[in-house]
Target: Core-binding (CB) domain-containing protein
Amino acid sequence: MEADQLFTSLCESLGLTIKTAKNQTGTRVEFAGFLLDSASMRVTLSTSKHEKALTLLHQALQLHSDSTKPCSFTLSELQHLTGYLQFIARIVPGGQLHLRHLYSAQAWFPTRLPQHICNRRRITTNMRHELEWWFTLLSASTWTGISLELPVIRSEIHIWTDAASTIGIGGYYIAGTWQTPSVFTDFSQLSPPPHCILARNAFSERPNLKLRKALRIRLHSTTNQERQPTINLLELFAIFRTLELWGDQFRDHSVHFHCDNLVVVNCILRQTTRSSDALFIRYLRTLLARAASLNLSIQCHWLPSSANNIFFLPPAYSRLQYLMSPLSRSHFSSPSLNHNHPPRRWLDLILSQTHMSAATAIILWQSLAPSTRHGYLTGLFSYLDFCQTRRFDTPIPATTTLLLHWLTALASSRSRQASTIQAYLTGVKSHHIDLGLHVTVFDSDLIRRFLRGINNHLPQTIPTQLRREGDLRYRRPILKEDLQTILDSLTTLLPNEPATLGLKAVFSLAWTGFCRIGEITYERKDLVNTSPDEFASKHLVRRSITFEPTPNALSSRTLTGMRITFPSTKTSFLRPIERWIAAVGGPYCPVHLMAEYFCHNSRALSEPLFFASGNPPMPFTRQHVVKILQQFHHSFNGHSFRRGAATWAAQIGLSEADIQSLGRWASATSARRYIEESPQQSLALSSRFQTSIGLFSSTSSVVPSRSPLEKTGVRSVSRPPPGL
Model:
């Protein structure tokens, strides 16, 4: 009080008038129409100014009017409203961006007096959006003005984002201080170590459907004006998504965005844009409004694209990959790692239910083949979704009761086979193994008996090895006679064609090597946008074939064998396997056919192994080879060579262990499924049995000398198959 009295007496002695409204006790004072609070260190609108702004917006939008006439303005009304909102924009981050169309509308009025005084113009859609944005912000209880705290005092959040065309967007963040490009010229120092990035602090996804449609239209546009802003919009959307996902965690923080798009960086720093792209403006407005409601101090830093692609992780995230391992950066570009990363849902489950790091989870995921992992995930997600819909709070670890309820629901739907349900159960069991939990519940007598009940309850399916002609899913094996018929037909038709040499080498190699067609050919998607090193890490190339004794002997008949190096197979994922094939001579020898093909087709060692004729020549795709193969018989497919080789090996008396080794099967059970029991062999065994017990004389037993395959037999093709 003494200080107040002293101040009052001093002003009176100097002849100064004190304004009572600004000389009150407390922590709040009104200055220049704004209310300053020294306790919360915030600046907001005074109550009167706030109510006036809402009243003007009410009148402009006719929120309380029953009139059906469209909203309209005179020039003076529009100028009054725009000027008042411009005044408020001083404490609203990004507020100026929401005044563009209001200012542009003032140019529509005639400039001569007195026409412009009473002239009215209707409100446009863009103007309405701006006014609705202001009304929503000012009427929201979450908006409390801006903070007076300096950004350096706030806790920092650093976010890295990236966008990759229409493939996807991604980003991650770390809490705490970090270097900025203005400090260091070595951009490799700007990236946090991979082990510091938690899976829950990173995201990778495709844009929403509406945005993807808009981008697809622009990519197919013929004008550069429409194509150019595509990446700008994606980069901005990536930043927008970070605040959508984690905005509530960033409240009252200083957020630093690291982006390699200079247009987006400038727009965020200026909090406005000159772009006419309505979608870009919309996301920028929403981003700034979200930042204002969360009381965020936004900083944006530009990074060169080269630095972002080489040293930073977001390009990997934006391509729907999860490279969160503490491995060296040289491993990030390794093709063997880039195409086998776990889905986000599985990764989140592992990290939330264990104490594993992201690197440990990725290595654990790679313990099984990708096809096996994805098959297990189908069953696991089916189980988790069932427990969620039935409101079972703790699905993991699984109990006998939960498993019985789930299996009953699967069997009752009758939309899955018994073998599929059992595979689903194996997927849930595999997840328990990943988590280090006990799996005794899956092997209990009750579960086994229940599975037998499902097998009896559902319609039975014919096993693959018992399917015969007439079944659409029948995979006819190619036996020795069938292979000879096919190769002879190719030789008769086109004896000197390079494509024919390639086809003969493919067919002979597939049969003698117990191969699926997909192992020695390629898919169309593998031939597009794939680097030579990445292609060679997954598929056979010319350097995968090595002849013995020396390469100089290719033109002679002195070859003893051929070594094939499979870079990756279904049973040995990411581990090369070597197989040797002996040279036995004759017109069907795969070694001599391959050597002859190499002599007529000289190409680089890193190129695909087999090429078809054409201009330019194209590598053999699986669809191309199977289509030609089915010209000889409609039941032939990619597994016919592998099934035929296993069946023939069993007929000539090779042991199961030898067949398993030749076919590279993981178990004898898997190999046994490829062996088709020959009717001729069954007749021979029955004849031996009946002759040995004296039911019939040995002369009356008739063992057919002709294979039943020759009855319906493989037809010789008298005309070239399509594609040759």
About this structure: The CA atoms of residues 400 and 444 lie 9 Å apart. The mean pLDDT is 74. DSSP finds 31 helices and 16 strands in the chain. The longest strand covers residues 156-164.
